[in-house]
Amino acid sequence: MKRFYVVAFILVGVVTMALPVAAQKLVSPPASFIEPTFTLRSPSPGIRLNGGSRVTVEWDLRVDDAITNNNWSEMELFLVDNNGLLLRITPQLSVTTKTFEWTVPSVNTSSAKIVAQVGIEGEGDFYNLPQTGTFTIKTKAWSPIVFVNSLERTPTAGENMELSWIAENIDRSKGFDVMISYDRGAHFFKAGTTTDTRFSLPIDEDFSGAVTVQVIARTADGTKVASLLTPHVTFRVKSKNL
Q1: What is the tens place of the pLDDT at every residue in 189-239?
Q2: By the 8 A CB rule, do 236 and 15 touch?
Q3: Residue 181 neighbours by CB under 8 Å, 6+ apart
Q4: pTM exceeds 0.85, yes or no
Q5: Cross-strand bridge partners of residue 103
Q6: 20 to 30 Å CA-CA from 125: which of 104, 116, 118, 162?
């Protein structure tokens, strides 16, 4: 358990998936503009959640009509704590969304906090709105865990990205779904399924950018265990022309 948490902590400052700095508007908004506010209803401050459990996250989000009525507006939720933990909780959501079914990650922290990132896609100016207060997450040592390893080397476009992961307390015969995102976890698609803990992901020759990886294990009772979406699971791909 603990080694996974430390890796997320060490790498949070050096990978570009980190939350943007609190919004500094490039142009002053109109005087009538309503600054977004985020109120977390559940989980409530002070509560203790168990890693691997399912909970409903509920919130109120108040935004200006200029954001609500924009077709490109979006929000995402992240989990942070006082020790540098940074996990993506949701994909991109509509700013009118009020709930999300969340599988609590298998970490241990007494200062967990949910942060809403709200803005308009493509404008590069987002609001980061933390909940008031914190809550605790406790995870039992025998809990099932999937942890994506760092790459042995940085792949070049046109090659295969050699992925591997650690699976503890999981029946591998049930298989793993390898999920891939090209927008740092905002949207995922399935790249393949395997019973191994390795997977070769072909990279297009003209690809440029980074790939975010999530591995989802299927357990005997039908539940799913997903690897943590920490910043270190976003891997850079070298351009073939460099």
Answers
A1: 999 999 999 999 999 999 999 999 999 998 877 789 999 999 999 999 999
A2: no
A3: 187, 188, 189, 211, 212, 213, 214
A4: no
A5: 54
A6: 104
CA Rg, the chain, in Å? Answer: 19
- Identify the bridge partners of residue 178 per DSSP, sorted by sequence position: 192, 215
| Amino acid in the structure at residue 219 | T
The answer to whether the beta carbons of residues 44 and 135 sit under 8 Å apart is yes
pLDDT tens, 79-109? 999 999 999 999 999 999 999 999 999 999 9
Structure tokens given for 115: 């942060």
Tell me what pLDDT residue 118 has: 95
